[in-house]
Amino acid sequence: MMKPKSIAAAFASWFVIISLLCSCISGDQNETNYEGLSYNYYEKTCPRLDEIVRSSISPMFALDPTAPAALLRLMFHDCQVQGCDASILIEPSGDQQFTELDSAKNFGIRKRELIGSIKTSLEVECPQQVSCSDLIILVAREAVALTGGPLIAVPLGRKDSLSTPSKHVADSELPPSTADVDSILNLFAGIDMTIEESVAIMGSHSIGVTHCNNVLSRFDNENATNANMDPRFQTFLRVVCPEFSPTSKTAEATFVPNDQTSLIFDTAYYDDSIAGRGNLRIDSEIGVDPRTRPFVEAFAADQDRFFGSFSSAFVKLSSYKVLTGNNGVVRGVCDKVD
């Protein structure tokens, strides 16, 4: 029979082993695989950061329910070009005439000024601590949560870039509105996303609208137009987006909702994809491609699974090519290089 001390020692040993196993499986949220980023980065230097961000954007979301989609798109377009470095906020200066914001693929980018407004408040609370690049991520995170999606834990500590790339770089790195499954999977594989995560991040289209200039470009290719498209939905798109030139002002000013609940972050996007009601080519094709359809069906049936996969994909996207440590700066004003 084991003595009490031996029993206690055995239990202690098993506790250590179990703790180690659990840490390997779940990870410690105070650490991250993304070098230089941390889940508690501002714990001492700006402890009220989350509170200030949330209180700044909640009233604005109530006044403009389209703002969350705009802020989520702002994050994607910043991160996809040169990494998540807030370069998309910089206004051109000196002899630089055309920045990434001038790319046609950045048409409709909005709410950049909101990041600057929150930054002004933070400079009073905790001066020269919070980067504009972290703010873009935090605001996008809140945009998802405040429209019904998950509240995603994101590692922080990004630094801002000292320059903005040219429009030609943005043209080459942002996907076109005609992107198909192959190109999207290749794009997100470069950010180390699985196919499931790639399908999940497309769920960003669960909120917001698609401008008719992007819808009309789809009709230029009849094969792409007819791929998994409900004929009644095609008629609807042609009525809402008449045959103007995709570059016309009318096509740019008109739009269609991304799905049947375009103000709520939910799984309706995947229901629409299965039913052939996707606005863009990729929205339709993920519902039929054998590589992506199983995940589309899974997310349509299980919101928790979608939220989990989306959260994982969001962290990977928001940690793409980040600047940390001495490789970047904390701008005092988001639209200017100090």
Please characterize this protein's 3D structure:
With 338 residues, this protein is an all-alpha fold. The protein contains 16 helices and two strands. It has helices at residues 4-26, 49-63, 67-80, 112-125, 132-146, 167-173, 181-189, 195-201, 212-218, 222-226, 231-240, 249-253, 268-274, 281-285, 293-301, 303-318; strands at residues 209-211, 255-257. Strands 1-2 form a two-stranded antiparallel ribbon. Its EC number is 1.11.1.7. The active site is at 77 (proton acceptor). It is found in: Secreted.
Secondary-structure blueprint of this entry?
Blueprint: H1 4-26, H2 49-63, H3 67-80, H4 112-125, H5 132-146, H6 167-173, H7 181-189, H8 195-201, E1 209-211, H9 212-218, H10 222-226, H11 231-240, H12 249-253, E2 255-257, H13 268-274, H14 281-285, H15 293-301, H16 303-318
Q: Name the structural class.
A: mainly alpha
Which second-level CATH architecture of the domain at 48-208 and 258-319 applies?
Orthogonal Bundle
Low-pLDDT stretches are 1-33
Question: What is the CATH domain class of the domain at 48-208 and 258-319?
Answer: Mainly Alpha
Summarize the entry for a quick read.
With 338 residues, the chain is mainly alpha-helical. Helices cover 50% and strands 2% of the residues.
